[in-house]
Amino acid sequence: GLSAEGVAEKNLVFDISYNCKHLEGWTDDYPLGVYAWDSSNSVRAICNLTKMFVEGMMDDWFRAGKRVSVRIHASTDGTELVGPIAYSGEYGDFRFMPTTFNGERLRVSVDRESGIRNNCQLAYIRAQSVRWFLENNVRNLGRTVNDYEYTTQSFADTGAHYRRSSIEL
Questions:
Q1: Nearest to 106 by CA among 94, 96, 118, 95
Q2: Distance (Å, rounded) from C-alpha 56 to C-alpha 35?
Q3: Distance between first and last Cα of the chain
Q4: H or E element in which residue 160 lies
Q5: pLDDT in tens, 96-125
Q6: How far apart are CA 132 and CA 134, in angstroms?
Q7: How many other C-beta atoms can be found within 10 angstroms of the C-beta atom of residue 128?
Q8: Does the pTM of the predicted model rise above 0.70?
C-alpha cells in the first residue's frame, strides 16, 4: 500500500494479548495498584513474545530506518485509589502527554512528586512500562523509527482480569 505521503509501505499488524483461565484466587494479570511490566505474568509473556517475534521471525522487516507504529493498550479495573501510589520515575516524568482514556482523547501527567492519583495515570504508567521494555530489550526496535500511541482504559468492574496490557506493531 501507500502511506498518506504516497510512499510505498507494508502493512502487517502484529497484535498480541494474553488471556488466561481465571482460577479462583489466581491471576496472571497486574496485582492491585502495581504498574511495572514484570509484575504481571501476562504482560511479561506478551513482552517476551513480542521480542521473539521482532528479533526472530520478522527480523528483516525491522531494519534500520523503517517506520513502525507501536500501539500499547493498558487498563485498570474499577478499584478507586484511596491515596497516591508511589511512583519512583523509573519510566520518566510525564507532563500533558496524549492518550486515549476510555475512548476520550486527553492529556495525562505523572511525576515522582505527585505519584499516581487516579486510574488514568495508573493505566498510562502501565503502558509506559511496556514501552520501556520494548525500547530496552528489543534490539530491532532500537534501530527503527517508532511512533508510539497509547490507549488506556479503566473498567467499571473490579477484578485482576481487567488489569492487563497488549501490544500492536
A1: 96
A2: 28
A3: 17
A4: none
A5: 999 999 999 999 999 999 999 999 999 999
A6: 5
A7: 22
A8: yes
